[in-house]
Specification:
- The chain has 17 helices and 11 strands.
- The relative contact order is 0.13.
- The longest helix has 25 residues.
- Helix 1 packs antiparallel against helix 17, helix 2 packs parallel to helix 5 and helix 6 crosses helix 11.
- The strands form 4 sheets. It has a 4-stranded antiparallel sheet, covered by helices on one side. The chain has a 3-stranded antiparallel sheet with strand order 1-2-3. The protein has a two-stranded antiparallel ribbon with strand order 6-7.
- The protein is mainly alpha-helical.
- Bound molecules: alpha-D-glucopyranose.
- The site of alpha-D-glucopyranose has 7 residues, from helix 2.
Length: about 425
């Protein structure tokens, strides 16, 4: 049942209240208890939500994020604007002060997250009534966003093939997705019993909905390696057991490149560097990562050369959103999504195929529905003309939030489910605002 006008208005009011309560001085925390700092791609989605009713905050959000940008262009996944003991691993674990490239203040983590600010700026521009204002803001931000993309293409694309690698599962934004299982299995992290007591997430959320301690040990083992390398990309590329070309992150990069190209035209700027990167990236996605049998894109483990064929919906949704597949490839992908993910008894869109062994409907990125992934799917489907399917995605997202609240993620099983993780989760609220607008 579609929501009534009154229900929509009430939902909008509640969504704004979530963002209000998560707003700090100049930026928004993803969730007050679980994530008390500023996160990279969260801020992009959050700024889009604000842009519908408070452009000042939308701009501050993005400007604050770029205060954490490194000299080499790296845009870190967390910016620690304040001190807070409720999160692990905090700045004392990352120790980014060992590299002169990281800012002293604010302190930051030492890895990236999906580069979405480019396309967020363009979507804000498209939807805005004050286009001149947004264009001026885009002009201000343009060099910084470009520097981030340049960092990715120069330091994270070893073979100059247009596909950047991630060196940590946290960089993908999808921390414990089964995509990383075989890669992490190669890491023999020591049995560190203190990890369980260091973790702060388990004080907020039930263990069964979060990554395991062993997984956390591996995550920290990688951070340790980055520190030993003093955050030098060359050293990391030579010694890191986790070097993966991820189709989801590369797709969001492609979509952001395209957005910067479109904005450059409006701003009268040269975009030839971006065009070159983008053509190479799209070609490489379709020649190297496309899986013609599964109708999906595979991740590639650069340390072994092996494809990772685990089926997750983001590996199909990212490319659709970025218009990477041709019309015929897109039809195959959508058929696959319909058959394997959009099944009776499930809300759209589970992140892992329900019939797969790895599917865990309440464990973080191993099955639950996430509103940002649904938002990407909605726009991806519409670009190829799948309007009815797209409407189902939007309806399911609104129903889940209406029923359970502004959670971080949702059990995809109808009837059995609920909302999990953080409760007043910022990007859920921000993207609902965008939908309702
Ligand atoms: C989790 C998510 C990541 C998000 C962060 C803050 O680590 O996996 O995508 O950015 O929380 O919300």
């Amino acid at each position: 049942m579609p929501l009534t006008t009154t229900q929509r208005q009430e939902m909008l009011r509640q969504a704004k209240a979530v963002l209000d309560s998560n707003w700090r001085e100049g930026y928004t925390v993803p969730g007050a208890a679980l994530y008390p700092f500023q996160w990279n791609w969260d801020s992009g989605f959050i700024a889009l939500g604000y842009s519908h009713y408070d452009l000042g905050r939308a701009k501050q959000e993005i400007r604050s994020l770029f205060k954490g940008q490194w000299q080499n262009g790296l845009l870190p996944h967390i910016v620690f604007h304040v001190e807070n003991d409720n999160y692990f691993p905090g700045p004392e674990i990352w120790q980014t002060e060992i590299t002169p490239r990281a800012p002293r203040k604010p302190r930051t983590s030492g890895i990236i997250q999906p580069p979405i600010i480019g396309f967020i700026l363009e979507v804000m521009y498209q939807k805005s009534a004050v286009k001149r204002d947004i264009l001026a803001f885009a002009e201000e931000l343009f060099p910084q966003v470009l520097r981030f993309h340049r960092y990715l293409y120069t330091c994270r694309d070893i073979h100059r093939e247009g596909l950047v690698y991630i060196q940590h599962n946290w960089e993908s934004g999808m921390d414990n997705s089964p995509t990383w299982d075989t890669v992490l299995a190669k890491i023999d992290a020591e049995d560190d019993r203190s990890i369980a007591s260091s973790r702060r997430d388990l004080q907020q959320v039930d263990r069964s909905q979060r990554p395991s301690d062993v997984e956390y040990q591996k995550y920290l083992h990688l951070v340790d390696l980055f520190m030993q390398c003093k955050y030098e990309d060359k050293c990391i590329a030579e010694s890191c057991p986790f070097l993966v070309q991820d189709p989801f992150l590369n797709s969001l990069l492609i979509r952001s490149n395209q957005a910067l190209i479109n904005l450059a035209i409006l701003l009268g700027q040269n975009a030839s560097e971006l065009k070159d990167w983008n053509e190479t990236s799209i070609r490489a996605m379709n020649t190297k990562l496309w899986n013609a049998r599964n109708h999906s894109y595979d991740a590639l483990d650069l340390t072994t050369g092996e494809r990772i064929t685990t089926s997750t919906s983001p590996a199909m949704i990212g490319p659709l959103f970025a218009r990477v597949p041709s019309e015929s490839q897109a039809h195959l992908i959508v058929e696959r999504l319909r058959g394997s993910f959009a099944r009776d008894g499930f809300y759209l869109c589970p992140t892992v195929m329900p019939e797969q062994n790895e599917f865990e409907p309440q464990r973080y990125w191993r099955g639950p529905v996430w509103i940002n992934i649904n938002w990407l799917l909605f726009h991806g489907l519409r670009q190829y003309g799948f309007e009815r399917f797209a409407k189902r995605v939007a309806d399911d997202s609104l129903v889940l939030v209406q029923k359970y609240g502004f959670h971080e993620y949702f059990d995809p099983r109808k009837g059995a489910g609920g909302g999990y993780g953080a409760s007043g989760f910022s990007w859920t609220a921000a993207l609902i605002i965008d939908w309702l607008a």
